[in-house]
Design brief:
Elements: E1 2-3, E2 9-10, H1 20-29, E3 34-42, H2 44-57, H3 63-77, E4 84-86, E5 89-91, E6 98-105, E7 111-118, H4 126-138, E8 141-142, E9 145-146, H5 150-159, H6 163-174, H7 177-184, E10 187-190, E11 213-227, E12 230-244, H8 250-265, H9 270-278
Helix pairs in contact: 1-6, 2-9, 3-4, 3-8
């Protein structure tokens, strides 16, 4: 604890060196032509079926994991939305690697958002994605990645490089689609905004990152609507979807978002999962 000259008490905490990499990536991302779509997605049926699954199996399916399952399926139909642009070319990959932000606990009990990549999300089932997220949440970490991993060692070394070199490396990576997909995935989903689940607002995060497609899952809300002549209340999730306008144009964006909304609203995949569990 220190005292300032005005006798005001304060304390100084050191920002981890690994966070320098986040600052660099944000700077590079500001030059991209992103479009932010703020949406409210109806998840009433999804939440009911997740609760039903919990009663049967004693475990609650990760909502983030389920949404990644649906998102990766819709992307396969509108594959341009996840393409990586280099110059006047866009690179479209067969598989979807999802960079996900997961809150985990450091050795000092401090909770921080950390990164993980769900490889081949379009090939994985709801439960495979769910189990992977739960396993990652329990792993010990240091900095922003798994403790003791090769990636952790590289991150530590890289964070000591001068800033102009780090930014040059980031820019170079963004011009190499295969390397970018390998290092950070080709889409990003962050669910940090859902941590405010007890706060009823329309707020949602606005991501500024280099991915061509990003989903920032915000807080929950309730919405009144008319169905069959009656007023009903539905649970909704505030979401910001960020797309690269250089890669995908308005018509494709609209069709992609419309189908994504309908699949989540109808709880695509969950009914089938419950039927399989019943057998």
């Amino acid at each position: 604890m220190r005292k300032s000259q005005s006798n005001e008490d304060y304390k100084v905490k050191k920002i981890p060196k690994s966070h320098r990499l986040i600052f660099d990536m944000l700077d590079v991302s500001l030059k991209q032509h992103h479009v932010h779509v703020i949406a409210q997605v109806e998840i009433d049926l999804v939440l009911k079926l997740i609760e039903k699954y919990k009663k049967i199996n004693g475990e609650k399916i990760s909502l983030t994991g389920y949404l990644i399952f649906v998102i990766s399926r819709v992307i396969k139909k509108y594959e341009d939305v996840s393409a990586i642009k280099v110059g006047l070319k866009k690179y479209i990959f067969n598989d979807i690697d999802v960079h996900i932000i997961i809150e985990r606990e450091l050795e000092n009990s401090e909770k921080v958002p950390t990164s993980h990549i769900i490889r081949y999300a379009n090939r994985k089932s709801i439960l495979e994605i769910h189990n992977e997220i739960r396993e990652v949440q329990l792993e010990p970490i240091a900095g922003l990645v798994r403790k003791g991993s090769k990636r952790k060692k590289l991150q530590r070394i890289f964070s000591y490089f001068p800033r102009f070199i780090r930014k040059r490396v980031f820019k170079r990576m963004l011009k190499k689609p295969k390397l970018m997909k390998k290092r950070i995935g080709n889409i990003c989903v962050t669910a940090v905004g859902m941590l405010t689940k007890n706060i009823r607002t329309i707020g949602t995060p606005i991501p500024i990152q280099p991915w061509p497609l990003q989903f920032a899952l915000g807080c929950f809300d309730r919405k009144l609507k008319i169905e069959n002549g009656e007023i009903v209340q539905r649970e909704i999730l505030n979401v910001t979807i960020t797309l690269d306008h250089d890669i995908v144009q308005g018509g494709t964006m609209t069709r992609f978002l419309s189908e994504l909304y309908e699949m989540v609203k109808s709880a695509y995949g969950l009914n089938e999962l419950l039927k399989n569990e019943a057998h």
